[in-house]
Amino acid sequence: MVQNELIGGRRRGSMPIADLHVHTTNSDGTMSLHEVPEAAHRANVETVAITDHERLHPDLETPTDERDGIEIVHGIELRVESDAGQVDLLGYGVRPTASLEDELDRLQEDRIERGRAIIDCVEDRFDADLALEPAEGIGRPHIARAIADSDANYDYKGAFEEVIGSGCPCFVARNLPTFERGAALLADACGVVSLAHPLRYGDPESALALTDSPHVTGVERYYDYGRPVDPTSIERVIEQNELLPTGGSDAHDDVLGRAGLDAEAFAAFRAQL
Fold it and tell me: Residue 77 class from Cβ within 10 Å (0-12 exposed, 13-18 middle, 19+ buried)?
């Protein structure tokens, strides 16, 4: 057991008041924006960042907002190609720029085309009818749910592991921006740019090395990996690169607060935001 081991994505003895990694139906979450405050109240969370995949939320017009007593931070999650492979960046306190909006429009078109290609492959390969039309925000979780609801004989997990996951017969790659371009676009539009869930990648050390970029100001220190992890490498780059620790549950459902920032860490985040 590592002394600083994450317990449920937070420090021992602390409770998160800010969940800074939450998805809604605007991308591949199951919760709409108007349902977020109730979920936050249930989890005793005071602040929630909406970080939909490659989409700004159309109902959030300012970097921060308040809904039913809950502070809402307008954020985004952007996947990029890097020397460490594909990684995800989180942008917080979005003030959209024309360049960012143009890139997001391109990425949505790419998502739609990719979604259509995957759906066609699944339907042809398994002689199944997926009750799903490609639209903005579509991701593989939508397709996996449709596969599970079809007669293709796969559940949600099996759809990822055997049908549409990387290396599977119906996987289709995406046309992503480079790390340098994506990080620069977010830095121009956001108050904080953070590397998401660094210990999820195949080469965590190479992913953490990306935080040396002048465009990256944070790293997701608190995250519920579903297993014990040693955060020593994250703590090291936080100190070396003077980064803000961020944290969140990466909720695609309505259960918040599984990971996040306590009051002390959130105060530092808010000051920079």
Answer: buried
Q: Based on the domain organization, do 89 and 196 belong to the same domain?
A: yes
Q: Quote the tokens at residue 127.
A: 């002689």
* CA separation for the pair 193, 130 (Å, rounded): 37
How far apart (Å, rounded) are the C-alpha atoms in residues 135 and 106?
13
DSSP character at residue 220: E
User: DSSP letters along 27-80, please?
Assistant: TT-SS-GGGHHHHHHHTT-SEEEE--BT---TT--SSEEEETTEEEEEEEEEEE
Both 203 and 80 in one domain: the answer is yes
Give just the sign of the alpha carbon dihedral 178, 116, 165, 139: positive
Domain containing residue 28: CATH number:
3.20.20.140
Q: Residue 135's domain spans which residues?
A: 103-164
Would you give per-residue pLDDT tens digits along the chain (273 residues)? 233 344 445 544 468 999 999 999 999 999 999 999 999 999 999 999 999 999 999 999 999 999 999 999 999 999 999 999 999 999 999 999 999 999 999 999 999 999 999 999 999 999 999 999 998 888 899 999 999 999 889 999 999 999 999 899 999 999 999 999 999 999 999 999 999 999 999 999 999 999 999 999 999 999 999 999 999 999 999 999 999 999 999 999 999 999 999 999 999 999 999
Single-letter residue type at 10: R
